[in-house]
Amino acid sequence: MFVPIENLISEDHPYRKLLSLINFDDLTRSLERLYKKAIGRTGYSISQGFRALLLQYLEDLSDRELERYLQENLAGKYFCGFDLEDNTPDFSYFSKLRSRIGTKRLATLFNAVRDGLKAQGLVKEIFTFVDSSHLISKFSMWDDRDKAIKKGLEKLNNETVRKVARDKQAKFGCKGKDKYWFGYKQHVSVDMQSGLINKIAATPANVTDAEGLKHICPNQGAAYADKGYCVKKARQTMERKGCHDAAIRKNNMKDKNRDKDRWISSIRAPYERIFSKLSHRARYRGIAKIQFQLMMDALAFNLKRMITINAPPLNLSAI
Question: For the stretch 259-275, what's the b/e string if a residue is b when 16 or more beta carbons lie within 10 angstroms of its beta carbon?
């Protein structure tokens, strides 16, 4: 006896809730022209493919793990729109689909979801948390160091590493006095009313927080930031965007107010946890692909957050 797959998924399953929050057919309608030239097995709609990519970030899966997940997990099949006996994509399909969508098209979808959140009043940009965190690149330190020695390079730094590293756009970065890494930096702005990610951007690791602020600075309200954003460059960015500067001041600054800064630090603290939900490992090489990863991470985070705050379904029919 044939049983529909939806009958096998519990009513309160998170995937069922996600499908009730957003209509992926509406969201991905602008991508349908990408399928004039088929990829993978025939029969996969762009909506199914995009949901599979989103599932990858929801569950933190590699391409091969995602292939197996869709083969074995009923809830995963249901979320992506597959029936019990349907063939699901193999691992090579996902990389081809990511390349076909690209970062610019994904940015359009991300902005559409964000605009839907703004229309519902869930993102207001009145009080915004801004910060950055590390993103470690796939990097064989000792292998590349050996290459540097063979090439006669005395030091392995941001000037010389591009000559030997596999990822030519990755850089060495530093946060604080003793935290170093090789890769990229993710800059994030979060609406403090709802806890939803408003903007997210990737830069090489050696770009300072103040320099990266131009990518994520809100267009109004106040930006609550740490000491990395109290410098002149960051202040100019906030002023140009029409945003109030609510950054913690350094100890040697004349306008330092310790009571105020302790208060800012206390209200920022809950939003620091967002970085524990986002990946700190670069899946790909190159700044464009890293930006793709961050936007997918942010979409997955926002959908999970919408379930937590019992957000109403998004209206994306106007896309």
Answer: eebeebeeebeebeebe
| Residue 197 backbone class (left: φ over 0; alpha: ψ -120 to 50; beta: rest) | beta
40's torsion region: left (phi>0), alpha (psi -120 to 50) or beta?
Answer: left
Q: What are the mean pLDDT values of the chain's consecutive 10-residue runs (319 residues total)?
A: 83 94 91 67 83 96 96 95 91 93 94 93 93 83 59 66 78 83 93 95 94 94 94 94 93 91 94 89 93 96 94 78
Mark residue 286 as left, alpha or beta (left: phi above 0; alpha: psi -120 to 50; beta: remaining): left
For residue 90, give both structure tokens. 């193999």
C-alpha dist (Å) from residue 16 to 68, 87, 113:
20, 21, 18
Return the amino acid letter for 140.
S
- Angle in degrees, CA 250, 251, 254, rounded to 5: 85
pTM of the predicted model, to two decimals? 0.90
Angle at the Cα of 100 from the Cα atoms of 97 and 104, rounded to 5 degrees: 120
Ramachandran quadrant class, 242 (left: phi over 0; alpha: psi -120 to 50; beta: rest): left
Are the C-beta atoms of residues 230 and 213 closer than 8 Å to each other? no
What is the residue type of 99?
A: S
Place of tokens 């949901």: 51
Instruction: For residues 251 and 253, give the distance between their C-alpha atoms in angstroms, rounded to a whole number.
Output: 6
Do β-strands 197-204 and 222-225 pair in parallel, antiparallel, or remain unpaired? Answer: unpaired
Max CA separation in the chain (angstroms): 77
Q: How far apart are CA 261 and CA 277, in angstroms?
A: 26
CA torsion sign for 107, 113, 119, 124 is: negative
End-to-end, the C-alpha distance of the chain in Å comes to 40
pLDDT at position 147 is 62
Rounded to 5°, the CA angle 299-305-310 comes to 125
